[in-house]
Structure formats: structure tokens, C-alpha cells
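[Backbone geometry]
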Amino acid sequence: MLLLISELDFSQEELSLFDSMYREAKQNPSRPESHHEVVWLPITDRSTPWTNEKQQQFESSQNTMPWLSLHHPSLLDPAAIKYIRDYWHFTKKPIVVVLDQQGKVVNLNALHM
């Protein structure tokens, strides 16, 4: 499992690059990475109100992604966000956390791989 963690303002360049890597991996079932699933976890600032603009931005990003995503950013518990920031060192740049079959973290940021 790959957890793609980012803010809502995921750059189109980064999204496009990750999308092409994802689609390439899925086209070749003999590659080990083709057996992984990706889930997007959008991190939002809870101190600012959720607006129509943010909703549209979320839906726009979600609609361009061929992988799974959280149904809505508000569903991510604040304690989980704190954990992601404190222990997985998420700041503003997207990260990809790799989990093994038992749910243990294998890599804190495989985005560069």
C-alpha cells in the first residue's frame, strides 16, 4: 500500500509524474510495484473554514487521480494528521509512505524512487 500524502494544492507537474509512474506500473503485471495500491490522503488546515473553492479544488484533484482517495479530507482524524506531521515528517511537499502487507511502514517517503 502506498499512501500519497499531500495538501490540496498538489502541483499538476507532480501529479502528472506520479500518475504516469502509477499507470506504467499497472500496465506491466510482472513488476512488483504493479501489485501496490495507492490511496491519496489530503491534509488540510483545519483552522481555516472549508469553502466551496476548497471543495472544488479537492474534487478536481480527486477526479484526475486513477487511484483511491479519502472520501473527504474532514474524515482524516486530527490525531492522524498530527502523527503524519510529527512522525512521518510531512510538511508541505507530497510524500509517499509505503506500508507492507501487515501495515508496517517500510519507507517514509518513496516519492523519489
